[in-house]
Amino acid sequence: MRRILLDTDLAMGAPGSDIDDGFALAMALADPELSVELVTTVNGNTDVDNATVLSRQLLDRLGRPDIPVVRGAAIPLSPPPRGQDAVSRRDSSAEPAAWSGRRAAPEIVDRVMTAPGELTLVAIGPLTNVALALLLEPELAGAVREIVVMGGVFGEHTNIAAMPGEFNIWTDPHAAAVVLASGARLRFVGLDVTRQVRLTREHAAAMAQGGQAFGAFAGQCTLEWIAHHGSWHPGDPLEQDSCAMHDSLAVAVVTRPDLVTWRAAHVAVETSSPVTRGVTVADFLTFAQPPPQNCHVATAVDVDGFTDLFVDRVANL
User: Fold this and answer.
1) CA–CA distance, 29 with 252 (Å, rounded to integer)
2) DSSP 8-state secondary structure symbol assigned to residue 293
3) C-alpha atoms less than 13 angstroms from C-alpha of 7 in its C-beta half-sphere
4) Candidates 203, 228, 229, 246; catalytic one
5) pLDDT at res. 82
């Protein structure tokens, strides 16, 4: 059994909201080889208060209110330049909540240092909480079993001038730089592979036909998100008819690393220039005297293998 802490900027609420992080949480709970021991929240897809409320609501819907949710960082270490704020997809159905005295970074430190070598940290939002935890306790890098990150793009580009780096890295590139320099065992699942794994309306129907309550909800949310998401990309037929499952793939590879092809790399992130903010530069160590390896990067994916696994597990929740 793999024990995980899930760090997320979850924005999944009513149908029409972003489903990515919510489906990743569902995928983690559906995996019989995973034990989700903590959910921590971070500013990203939505503000951190909203992410905290929505994470609790989704855990209730999934029948796991016992899993604690701890609020994390409200702002990145390095906010975007004025006029380039991250897009917020706030769900107006969420209500403010009363927070306990705990915060995500020290909670991550306490849990990992209490069980060295046993906990995997899966980060599917900006890396602010993870970086803060490593700054609070540098020995965390050696105590965590590994850190799996949904973030970056390594052999391609975003092709978005206003957001040159992948969203999670672009939102807080200084945090990503801290994580990459930490010495922790790191695996990055980026846009090179996540843009290939997509849900269609047919997949939505398959989830809804599973006969389970969450599967029906998931199918409806998928249809609404494809319609909403497609409105942002009026000239792209692929985006009109499907949506990528970025975060769910990062969760899946914790117990199914065979779903992707991994390459050792040295990755650096651009932190200074607004033109290239958040761009990840990957050296795959193929030239003489390469820089030291600091992570593994996913470079190819078994699309059908992941999609079949995802639809089957969510349909049966």
Assistant:
1) 11
2) P
3) 31
4) 246
5) 60
The whole domain housing 165 covers 2-315
Distances in whole angstroms, Cα of residue 62 to Cα of each of 40, 48, 65, 187, 244 = 17, 21, 8, 28, 22
CA atoms within 13 A on the CB side of 130: 35
Return the H-helix or E-strand segment holding 129.
helix 128-136
Cα 40 to Cα 51, 61, 111, 316: the distances in Å are: 9, 18, 12, 25
- Write the DSSP string, 51-96: HHHHHHHHHHHTT-TTS-EEE--SS-SSPPPTT-PPP----TT---
CA distances from 95 to 54, 73, 100, 178, 225 (A): 9, 18, 16, 33, 22
Pairing of strands 260-269, 295-301: antiparallel
Q: Residues 111-170: pLDDT tens digits?
A: 999 999 999 999 999 999 999 999 999 999 999 999 999 999 999 999 999 999 999 999
pTM to 2 decimals?
0.94
Rounded Cα distance, 278 and 269, in Å? 6
3-state secondary structure of 289: coil
CATH of the domain at 150: 3.90.245.10
How many CB atoms are closer than 10 A to CB 69?
27
Q: Give the number of domains in the chain.
A: 1
Told to judge if 246 belongs to the known catalytic residues of this protein, a careful annotator would answer yes
| CA separation for the pair 18, 13 (Å, rounded) | 8
